Amino acid sequence: MNDLKKIKGVAVLAAKKAGKELIKRYKSFNRNTVKLKAHHEILTQADLASEKIILSEIRKNFPDHRILSEEDGMSGTNGNYLWIIDPLDGSTNFSMHNPLWCVSIGVACKNEVVIGVIYAPILNEIFIAEKGKGTFLNGKKIKVSGHTEKALHTFCHGRSQKEIKRALRYYRHQKLRELDCRQMGSAALELAYVASGRTESILIPGTNPWDVAAGVLLVREAGGKVTNFKGKRWDIKEKDILASNGKVHQMILKIVKKI
Hints:
Blueprint: H1 3-27, E1 35-36, E2 42-43, H2 45-61, E3 66-69, E4 73-75, E5 81-89, H3 91-95, E6 102-109, E7 112-120, E8 125-130, E9 135-137, E10 140-142, E11 152-155, H4 161-175, E12 180-182, H5 187-195, E13 201-204, H6 209-221, E14 225-227, E15 241-244, H7 249-258
Parallel strand pairs: 3-5, 11-12, 11-13
Antiparallel strand pairs: 1-2, 3-4, 5-6, 6-7, 7-8, 8-9, 9-10, 13-15, 14-15
């Protein structure tokens, strides 16, 4: 068994195990248990339980791999492989019993994402990509849309006031031109939706690698395009990200320059 095949298998297993635990907690979730992280971001016991399951699976199978997780930070110092994890992307959605949340697991080799798994348990959808082998939704190969007219756009933003204001200027520009643009509350899922052709783009000023690493590979392997706001190929060190079906990419980059 080659490295990537085993890594992909463990990533899928970890995502599904974490998802099973999250479903149980989602059904009985009480918002009174919510704590706030820095910048008013929600942290629930569900995040931590999911992370524990994922980290356990990785360390059991790949004790020498590095791990970057939203809640636990960076661990490990050896090896070329880096696991990039968001144990619960869309915590606010989760807290209000909105099903648009997911587990996101990306694996990079020498800063290039080579495995991406996004699992939305309530929707019963698992998106899987391996570099050079395409993107799959529940076992069926998917691709980005070909739409340019009546395109559906999404956006998210980082924590700073500057990033929030930039995202709001983008939203205002799109909405005033009768273009559909909305914030769904889970960057990972929004990337998966671009990959599956449900939407045409996602723009995020000030992202974190755990929010987007897996989704970036989904989009690329589905035939889409992912860059920073200057049109340069995105990598895990970049803060700003635009992912699209490729057809609307230049149009959006032009808008970003204006705002």
